[in-house]
Amino acid sequence: MTGDKDSNGGERFTGHGSEWNNSSLSGQDAQTATAWVEQKIDKRSMLTNKDRVEDVRDIMWQLEKDGEIVVHRITEDHQPVMHKTLYGWDKKIPTNRLWHHKSCGQCGNIPGYPTSLLWLMNELGLEYLDETDQTSCTAWNYHGSGIGNLESLAAVFLRNFHQAYVAAKAEGKPEGYYYPLVHCGTSFGNYKEVRGYLLHSAELRERVKVILAKLGRLVDGKLLIPEEVVHYSEWVHAMRPQIKERQVIDCSNLRVTVHPACHVYKMVPEDVIYDDDVLDGNRVAVSTGIVEALGAQAIDYSTWYDCCGFGFRHIISEREFTRSFAIDRKIRVAVEEARADVMIGHDTGCITTLDKNQWIAKASGSPVELPVLADCQFAALMCGAHPYKIVQMHWHASPMETLMEKVGIDWRAKKAEFEAYLKEVEAGNGETLYDPRRMITSGPGYKRIEG
Amino acid sequence: MGHVSTTRVQSYIGDPVSDRPAVDRDMLEEVFQDIQADMRYDHELNGCLNCGICTATCPAAHYYDFSPREIVQLLWTENLEGIHDAMQEKIWACAQCYTCAARCPFGNSPGGLIMLMREAAIKHGMQSAKDVLRPFSRVMLKLISTGNQLAPDMINPDHFADWGPNISKIDAPLKLLRKAVPVPTMHTTETAWQVNLKTSVELYTIWEMTGVLDQLETIDENLFDVITDIMDEKREDWDDWVDEQDDEDDED
């Protein structure tokens, strides 16, 4: 390792051999020399300058034409909105008649995520179904432990999406009435990856077809493949004009950093929405799009591309990695560099990791605090949803109170309202976002709702 | 991949002065062939110029003796000893973020290759897999027996002391707080949402038919026994319910 003197006269180590000579470029020349790098790094071109990219949907339509599979279509009844993906391809985002493919991490740990989403759909007068006949995607476990395999992941994908296809029959409605909306970023990435392998491999299709047949989950003896795999953040992005119309709280004074989820935009990146009007089309558009639509200030920061540190396995058993990465590479950068008031995300593990791992920073004598929540929670809050009854902010460890104060919400009064509401819940007078009888669509407990 | 065992270097793994037990060449080949046989292998590995952009951008490389570039090189050059060695610890450092895959100019997915190596480590019952996955057993128990990976009752200060006292900022019993979530499927504490009995049974059938239960038995026999007991009961419950329905239909 070679010791050297930089232009400021301080010693530094170049890491190169003794034959290496400092170029001694002026600041301006150095900037010119690195301009190419700056144009490329952290830009959309990093993802698009590769070969071997294909649109697997072409294979899907051909397989359907050949009579191999059935495609669950997004019809006009699903009120689709078209968006452009990484390569400028069209992606159809259904906005109505949605089947909620819930996330175990969100439902288990950040319940304000699904409640905010369903609340927004109620506000917009949209139809949906949230039911008990759904499993986790099982991909968190797979990526963390290695227990599972391509075949099991594919079978789970096809089983859950088949249920989405047939669920409406329990309400006397036709197959395909509801279209699946995937809440979890890891489910979204995993399902898209698995869909690609299924479309490519006749062998994999044959193997899982045996399983799906045993479960009674084929359509006309064929595998059912969804036309699009859609993440809830894409729905929020598509609906941002309608959400903006319902905004009642001004958030223009908020400096917002967005943490995009790796499994949303780094897995199967060609399927991700990029919008020329959002961050010049260089970054994934979801979440930043709704933040800007609501009038908040989206602030860039140098570790935007970094993961959160969740690690799947690490958050359980390698916690020092998770919390160190979350604090040092994300939260501290957002606070000190971007001077952020809040960090907005769109995935399960990210929100958990970034929200829950701030308290421990006090132990290192260098505390850092930043409210962390999901884009749909933020949108619901700005549209007047109750911070505790709907947005369920009490499950967040990060300082939600400072965020509420910044936008003029009296959180003490809201908290008192919620504590009073808990007594009502205890007395059996709790409120729900939909008729609870709808949640069971078959098996024990199912009763057909007439009318 | 034929070979003739002649020298220790050709026959066994590792450092000749190490105390680590030697690994037979046949075993090294078997492990590598299992990795290579996965249909994803050729999709995830296309070539490597050692540019290191994967490692430069890797979160795990910041904190561990781990480099995705090294993993790709070991597989690309078919370095059987190195592959086996990496499976003893390094592959478990990866955070599965796929930043490496997004950045690789060759379109490799080092994170995806890591998954193939983890699956092979489990298949071969490697001690590294057993050690690393022991703390994960709660998640696997929950997932395989219910269809949910995470549940509200798993998030408590005993397990997550470093998250501080604010796991919930409202002082009320967990059960009550869950009932106050206005989504009826989520009035649960032992699962993230209420899972239909039929759904759990269907998922278990998937585990059985795809060899996942075999993986589990290899890694943790006790956990396997517990889960099979739970699921046998659930299956009986489901069969009983189906019989009852048949009886009711007959009466009609």
Main β-sheet of chain A, in a few words?
A: 4 strands, parallel
The share of residues in helices of chain A is: 40-55%
Q: Do you know the CATH architecture of the largest domain in chain A?
A: Up-down Bundle
Count of DSSP strands of chain A: 13
Distance between the termini of chain A: 79 Å
> What's the assembly state of these chains?
heterodimer
- How much strand of chain A? 5-15%
Q: Would you tell me the structural class of the helices and strands of chain B? A: mainly alpha
Counting structural domains of chain B, the number is 2
Q: List low-pLDDT spans of chain A.
A: 1-6, 11-16
The separation of the N and C termini of chain B measures 66 Å
* Strand proportion of chain B: under 5%
Q: How does this model look, in words?
A:
The complex is a heterodimer of chains A (451) and B (252). Chain A is α/β, with parallel strands linked by helices and 451 residues long. Chain A has two domains: 177 residues, Up-down Bundle (Glutathione S-transferase Yfyf (Class Pi), Chain A, domain 2), CATH 1.20.1050.140; 177 residues, Rossmann fold (3-Layer(aba) Sandwich). Chain A is built from 19 helices and 13 strands. A four-stranded parallel β-sheet of chain A has the order 11-10-12-13. In chain A, helix 7 crosses helix 9. The longest helix of chain A has 18 residues. The N terminus of chain A is likely disordered. Chain B is mainly α and 252 residues long. Chain B folds into two domains: 117 residues, Orthogonal Bundle (Fumarate Reductase Iron-sulfur Protein, Chain B, domain 2); 119 residues, no CATH class. Helices cover 56% and strands 0% of the residues of chain B. Chain B contains 15 helices and no strands. In chain B, helix 2 crosses helix 7. The longest helix of chain B is centred in the last third of the chain and has 31 residues. Chain B starts with 7 loop residues before the first helix and ends with a helix. Chains A and B meet through helix 4, helix 5, helix 6, helix 7 and helix 9 of A and helix 5, helix 8, helix 9, helix 10 and helix 11 of B.
